[in-house]
Amino acid sequence: MDKSLLLGLLVLLCCFRVLSGSLLRRDNAVSEVIVQEDGYPDQQIVQCRMCHLQFPGEKCSRGRGICTATTEEACTVGRIFKKNGTPWLTFMGCLKNCANVKNIKWSVYLVTFMCCRGHDLCNENL
After folding, report:
1. Which residues contact 82 (CB under 8 A, 6 or more apart)?
2. Is 79 exposed, middle or buried (CB count within 10 Å of its CB: 0-12, 13-18, 19+)?
3. Helix (H, G, I), strand (E, B), or coil: what is residue 12?
4. What is the pLDDT of residue 45?
5. Which domains does the chain have, with CATH numbers?
6. Least crowded by CB within 10 Å, which of 34, 37, 100, 104?
7. What is the value of pTM for the model shown?
8. 53-63: per-residue pLDDT in tens?
9. What span, in angstroms and rounded, lies between the C-alpha atoms of 108 and 82?
10. Could you tell me the pLDDT band of residue 85, with boundaries at 50, 70 and 90?
11. Low-confidence winner among 22-26, 33-37, 84-88 (lowest mean pLDDT)
């Protein structure tokens, strides 16, 4: 894989971290508050599937495991498609201030992020 393309992917992911923190008005809230019997709020802990690199038709090739989302994080799935709609790369994990975005143009690719906090490993089937 081309080094400049991987560097560009890293820059894109950093941009999404910054961008997602600035999108305060979203349809899907990533933080759920549960009130315990003693009356004090408690944040729900969610475990997420993690995979840093997965190419179409292959198993996870880097970073396979499970991460625990903090109160500011959600489970996420990122997918990168070629402009003709062909899947190119998938990655999963925990992301702070996650925001759902669809078909953001990045060079010759389209990028989609999906976020969830509904239950453990909710990002496996997004």
Report:
1. 88, 108, 109, 110
2. buried
3. helix
4. 85
5. 3-125 (2.10.60)
6. 37
7. 0.66
8. 999 999 999 99
9. 6
10. very high
11. 22-26
